[in-house]
C-alpha cells in the first residue's frame, strides 16, 4: 500500500541538539559568566562530565542513572515536571560552580538557538507536502517543540505535532502513534514512522505502521539521512 502519511521523530531525526560544549558555553553566557565560573575553569572537561551524566536533553544518554533518579528517568517524557526534574537531577550530579546554571542549561535546551535541522530536513518535508503526503511529528519530550520548528521554518511543512508530555503517554506505546495517525487522517497501514530509536520509534510497528530508522549523528555527519523517506513514501514502503 502506498504511504500517504509520515510520522517523524524530532530529536536525532529532524533536528539535532547543539554539542555539550556549545550548550554549556551558551548557558554560561546567559549567566554573564565564562569558564572561570566552573570549578576547574575547564569548559571542555565540564561539558564532558555533563555528557557522561546524560544531563543534556537530546544529547548523549547517561552512562549511569543514579538510583534515586531511575524511576523518574523511566517516565521522564510523560510530563513537563518529570522531564525537568529528571534532567536537572542528572545535571546536578556535576559540580558547575553555580546551582543556577543547572536551571539555565535546562531552559537553554528548549530554545531555537540550541537546535539545528539536518541538511535535508526542509527538502524532505517540503517534498512530502507537495506530494500531498500528510506529516506528523511524534516525540517523546517534556516541552513544546513547535516554536523550535517554527523558528527554523519547518512547522509550515508539518500538519500536527503529537508530544508525549501533552498526553501522558511515551513511545513505544502505540497509543501515541495511533493519535498521530488519527490527526492526519491516515490509517496505520498507510503510515511510515521515521525515527532514530529502535525501541521507542519501533513501537509504531505494533500498530501496523511501516518503520524506517535513521542514525542519530551530528548534523554535519548526516547530510542525506532523510532522503530515502521520499522513495518510501512513493510506495516502496518496507521495514528497514
UniProtKB/TrEMBL annotation:
Gene3D superfamilies hit by this protein: HAD superfamily/HAD-like
SUPFAM superfamilies, per the entry: HAD-like
InterPro entries: HAD-like_sf (IPR036412), HAD-SF_hydro_IA (IPR006439), HAD_sf (IPR023214)
The keyword Hydrolase is assigned to this record: yes
One Pfam family recorded for the sequence: Hydrolase
Keywords tagged on the record: Hydrolase
Single GO MF descriptor: hydrolase activity
PANTHER family (alphabetical): HALOACID DEHALOGENASE-LIKE HYDROLASE (HAD) SUPERFAMILY PROTEIN, PTHR46649
Protein name: HAD-IA family hydrolase
Native source species: Streptomyces odorifer
Source organism phylogeny: Bacteria, Bacillati, Actinomycetota, Actinomycetes, Kitasatosporales
Amino acid at each position: 500500500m502506498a504511504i500517504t502519511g509520515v510520522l517523524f521523530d524530532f530529536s536525532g531525526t529532524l533536528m539535532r541538539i547543539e554539542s555539550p560544549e556549545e550548550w554549556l558555553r551558551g548557558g554560561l553566557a546567559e549567566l554573564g559568566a565564562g569558564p572561570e565560573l566552573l570549578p576547574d575553569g575547564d569548559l571542555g572537561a565540564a561539558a564532558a562530565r555533563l555528557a557522561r551524566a546524560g544531563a543534556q536533553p537530546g544529547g548523549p544518554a547517561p552512562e549511569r542513572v543514579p538510583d534515586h533518579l531511575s524511576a523518574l528517568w523511566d517516565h521522564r517524557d510523560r510530563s513537563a515536571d518529570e522531564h525537568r526534574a529528571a534532567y536537572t537531577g542528572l545535571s546536578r550530579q556535576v559540580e558547575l560552580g553555580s546551582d543556577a546554571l543547572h536551571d539555565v542549561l535546562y531552559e537553554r535546551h528548549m530554545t531555537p538557538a540550541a537546535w539545528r535541522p539536518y541538511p535535508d530536513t526542509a527538502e524532505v518535508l517540503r517534498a512530502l507536502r507537495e506530494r500531498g503526503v500528510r506529516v506528523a511529528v511524534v516525540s517523546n519530550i517534556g516541552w513544546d517543540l513547535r516554536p523550535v520548528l517554527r523558528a527554523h521554518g519547518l512547522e509550515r511543512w508539518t500538519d500536527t505535532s503529537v508530544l508525549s508530555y501533552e498526553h501522558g503517554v511515551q513511545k513505544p506505546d502505540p497509543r501515541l502513534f495511533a493519535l498521530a495517525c488519527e490527526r492526519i487522517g491516515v490509517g496505520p497501514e498507510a503510515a511510515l514512522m521515521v525515527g532514530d530509536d529502535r525501541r521507542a520509534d519501533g513501537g509504531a510497528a505494533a500498530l501496523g505502521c511501516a518503520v524506517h530508522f535513521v542514525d542519530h549523528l551530528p548534523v554535519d555527519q548526516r547530510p542525506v539521512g532523510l532522503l530515502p523517506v521520499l522513495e518510501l513514501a512513493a510506495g516502496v514502503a518496507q521495514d528497514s
